[in-house]
Amino acid sequence: MKVVLLKDIKNLGKKNDIKTVTDGYAMNYLVPEALADIYTSAKAKEIEIKQKAALTAKPKAPKGKKKKKAKK
Protein backbone atom coordinates (compact mmCIF):
# COMPACT_ATOMS: atom_id res chain seq x y z
CA MET A 1 0.00 0.00 0.00
CA LYS A 2 1.30 3.46 -0.85
CA VAL A 3 1.20 6.17 1.81
CA VAL A 4 2.20 9.82 2.03
CA LEU A 5 4.18 10.58 5.16
CA LEU A 6 2.86 13.48 7.22
CA LYS A 7 5.89 13.57 9.54
CA ASP A 8 9.49 12.41 9.44
CA ILE A 9 9.67 8.77 10.50
CA LYS A 10 12.99 7.23 11.44
CA ASN A 11 14.04 4.38 9.10
CA LEU A 12 11.11 5.08 6.75
CA GLY A 13 11.30 8.56 5.26
CA LYS A 14 10.74 12.28 5.54
CA LYS A 15 7.60 14.38 5.49
CA ASN A 16 5.76 14.30 2.11
CA ASP A 17 7.64 11.21 0.89
CA ILE A 18 5.57 8.58 -0.88
CA LYS A 19 6.42 5.13 0.45
CA THR A 20 5.16 1.60 -0.10
CA VAL A 21 4.45 -0.21 3.17
CA THR A 22 2.51 -3.30 4.18
CA ASP A 23 -1.25 -2.87 4.54
CA GLY A 24 -1.18 -3.77 8.22
CA TYR A 25 1.57 -1.27 9.04
CA ALA A 26 -0.32 1.50 7.26
CA MET A 27 -3.79 0.76 8.60
CA ASN A 28 -2.85 -0.27 12.15
CA TYR A 29 -0.09 2.22 12.93
CA LEU A 30 0.70 4.98 10.44
CA VAL A 31 -2.81 6.19 9.62
CA PRO A 32 -4.33 5.99 13.15
CA GLU A 33 -1.32 7.78 14.65
CA ALA A 34 -1.62 10.54 11.98
CA LEU A 35 1.86 9.77 10.68
CA ALA A 36 0.68 9.06 7.12
CA ASP A 37 -2.28 9.28 4.74
CA ILE A 38 -3.21 6.74 2.13
CA TYR A 39 -1.77 7.77 -1.25
CA THR A 40 -4.20 9.05 -3.86
CA SER A 41 -3.60 11.06 -7.01
CA ALA A 42 -5.40 14.00 -5.38
CA LYS A 43 -3.05 13.83 -2.39
CA ALA A 44 -0.05 13.74 -4.74
CA LYS A 45 -1.26 16.90 -6.53
CA GLU A 46 -1.83 18.62 -3.18
CA ILE A 47 1.74 17.89 -2.09
CA GLU A 48 3.11 19.07 -5.43
CA ILE A 49 1.24 22.38 -5.09
CA LYS A 50 2.54 22.88 -1.53
CA GLN A 51 6.12 22.17 -2.64
CA LYS A 52 5.88 24.65 -5.52
CA ALA A 53 4.44 27.29 -3.19
CA ALA A 54 7.28 26.73 -0.73
CA LEU A 55 9.87 27.16 -3.49
CA THR A 56 8.36 30.36 -4.83
CA ALA A 57 7.74 31.95 -1.42
CA LYS A 58 10.11 34.75 -0.58
CA PRO A 59 12.54 33.82 2.19
CA LYS A 60 12.16 36.03 5.22
CA ALA A 61 15.14 38.15 6.11
CA PRO A 62 16.59 37.12 9.47
CA LYS A 63 16.03 39.65 12.16
CA GLY A 64 19.31 40.76 13.67
CA LYS A 65 19.64 41.21 17.38
CA LYS A 66 20.07 44.77 18.47
CA LYS A 67 23.34 45.40 20.22
CA LYS A 68 23.17 47.29 23.47
CA LYS A 69 25.26 50.40 23.68
CA ALA A 70 27.91 50.33 26.36
CA LYS A 71 27.30 52.76 29.21
CA LYS A 72 30.01 55.28 29.86
Automatic annotation (TrEMBL):
Ribosomal protein L9 domain mapped to chain residues: 13-40
Annotated keywords: Ribonucleoprotein, Ribosomal protein
PROSITE patterns, per the entry: RIBOSOMAL_L9
Pfam (any one): Ribosomal_L9_N
Domain of life of the organism encoding this protein: Bacteria
GO cellular component terms, semicolon-separated: ribonucleoprotein complex; ribosome
Family: Belongs to the bacterial ribosomal protein bL9 family.
Protein name, entry field: 50S ribosomal protein L9
